[in-house]
Amino acid sequence: MPLLEVRNLSVAYDGAPALTGVSLEVEEGEIVSLVGANGAGKTTLLAAIAGLKPASAGSVLFEGRDVIGLPAHRLVQLGIGLVPEGRRLFPRQAVWRNLMLGAYRQRDRDWRQLQIDSVFQMFPVLRERRDQAAGTLSGGEQQMLAIGRALMSKPRLLLLDEPSLGIAPLLVDRIFNSLREINQRGLTLLLVEQRLKQALALAARAYVLQTGRIVLSGPSAEMAESEEVRRAYLGL
Which of 95, 108, 134, 206 is the most exposed place for a label (fewest CB within 10 A)? Predict the structure, then answer.
């Protein structure tokens, strides 16, 4: 049984379809990339899985349970974490306060401290900046903080929307290496990313989304080598 299974999911905005009959699967322990041109519906799909956008049809199964209609905070409790596009941090709050917001439902102080220590171990620069306002961090450091905040809820599935957006090229590889390490620790990842080369290199499998529909899926290595796929579906 897949950890995540999306079945014939459709989402509309004011009657206009944004997603139509989308189906995909993510096995436990996998990294799966969702790629496509701007406006293909990738962010909408992650938002629907995370409970932030209502679906007009279809289902989202997490560990075999249909979670369509559950509020976003309940999905976090079940083990689905989201790193949103643009990070959406609280810029005037200190780094450590932003992290603690990721574990806002957890009242056990020792548990929260273990989680924040784990994040600091993965991203040492956040320990150095723990009392610094999040809005004063670099783009790469803010992305590390957004990932760390999502990890504070100890998810089993992490949804990542454009983690390299607005980051200096020198830090992009560092972010992707962190995602690989997170996966090696046992976390399953579903990744939306415009940097096609890095996204396909990181993931074992990929889905191509075009105008709200899945048009292709398969091993990432095959897609990375296919000029036809790059031209026809990704506009490259």
Answer: 108
